[in-house]
Specification:
The protein is an all-alpha fold. It has helices spanning about 25-35, 45-65, 70-80, 90-105, 110-115, 125-135; strands at about 150, 155-159.
Length: about 160
């Protein structure tokens, strides 16, 4: 498995704001895909958890651009893994709001995605995803999180 310690590298400083797609996405993709194929307990560093949380929001944009739910699944796994390791788990709310909105925009049930990825997440990650899904629509909207939708098609982006 690709080591999560690579996600702590300084190259990931400002990762959420770098252009999409970016070569760093490939590194996080490799980690998440490897993890999904062979889940195992992880003791992530806080910095790596922050990268995974940002990746979740980035994958929401990718899913809307490509109209494909696989990016949403990878984003949910990343956010679920990050949950217990962030300085402040509320930081995951931005990614979760974007993932929820992305699922809605491409016509994929968010709760179904959670069910699909829950087999490879720790219980705390699954609980966080389900808790978010249980919020009222207004409380899980991108607008409530201060996130804007910009562009369309290949330029769509959550900011």
């Amino acid at each position: 498995m690709t080591s999560w310690t690579r996600l702590q590298d300084r190259r990931f400083n400002g990762y959420l704001g770098v252009g999409l797609p970016h070569e760093l996405d490939g590194e996080v993709d490799a980690f998440v895909i490897a993890y999904m194929s062979r889940p195992e307990p992880l003791d992530l560093g806080r910095r790596a958890a922050g990268v995974l949380s940002a990746y979740g929001q980035r994958m929401a944009s990718v899913a809307v651009r490509t109209r494909a739910p696989e990016a949403l699944r990878r984003g949910l796994v990343a956010v679920g893994l990050a949950e217990a390791h962030l300085d402040d788990p509320r930081d995951n709310l931005y990614g979760l709001a974007a993932l929820h909105d992305g699922a809605s925009l491409i016509g994929t049930p968010f709760s179904g995605l959670i069910t699909e990825v829950s087999r490879c997440l720790p219980p705390s990650g699954v609980a966080a995803l389900r808790d978010f899904d249980g919020r009222g629509d207004r409380d899980k909207s991108v607008e409530a999180m201060g996130i804007r939708r910009t562009g369309e098609g290949e330029t769509f982006l959550y900011r």
